[in-house]
Structures are given as C-alpha cells and as structure tokens.
Amino acid sequence: MGTVKDTKNEYCDEVLGELAYMIQSVHELREMLGTTYGKESRLFHEHDRHLVDLAEYLDWKLQILTTSCPFEWKGLGPDVESVVSVGEAETIPGRDFAGGYIGG
User: Where is average pLDDT lowest: 5-14, 20-29, 48-57, 79-88?
Assistant: First the structure.
C-alpha cells in the first residue's frame, strides 16, 4: 500500500505529464494551422490568438496545480532540469553607489 507522499507524487507526475502533453498538442495545432492556411492569412490570425491563449491558460493552471505537490517532488524524473544557470553579474563602471534613502 502506498503512502500519502507516494500518492501525491504520482498525482503530480500525472498532472504534469497530461498538461504538458495538452500544451504540446495546442502548439502542434498552431503549426498545422499555419501550414494549412498560411501564417499571413486572416483565418490563421483569428484562430492562432485563441490557441496561444489556450496554451498560456494550460501553462498557468499547470503552475498552480503543481504548487500543491510535495516539496521534495522532482517532476518527471531525471530528464527535468532542476538547476538554474545564471551568468556573472555585469559590473557597472563608475562610482560606488549604494541605493537607499538619500536626503535630509
């Protein structure tokens, strides 16, 4: 019998997988629409706007639903990147200046 933690992780994996698949399907529909009618056609622009809205809505819901997942939940496994890489901060030449309250 699985623990509540395991059940939550399975649920989170299922939600992430299904919603990611739906988002991918919407983007494939956009590509099909562009191929069929041309990306400059009026019909493309009318439908594309709604498909983009739908993909963004699904992504927003995905973010909300996964916030209820356990802290130690890893996502879809080792394929999901969990490290953020940020470059070195750029230095600004000139005087040293610390922001804050200046005045009397």
Answer: 79-88
The answer to whether the CB of 68 falls within 8 A of the CB of 18 is: no
The rounded distance, in Å, linking the Cα atoms of 43 and 15 is 32
Instruction: Please give the model's pTM, rounded to 2 decimal places.
Output: 0.59
Cα(23)–Cα(25) distance, rounded to whole angstroms? Answer: 5
Judge whether 24 lies within some domain.
yes
Q: Which domain holds residue 12?
A: 4-66
Please state the domain count of the chain.
Answer: 1
Specify if 86 maps to a domain.
no
DSSP 6-63: HHHHHHHHHHHHHHHHHHHHHHHHHHHHHHHH-TTSHHHHHHHHHHHHHHHHHHHHHH
22-60 residue pLDDT tens:
999 999 999 999 999 998 999 999 999 999 999 999 999
3-state secondary structure of 5: helix
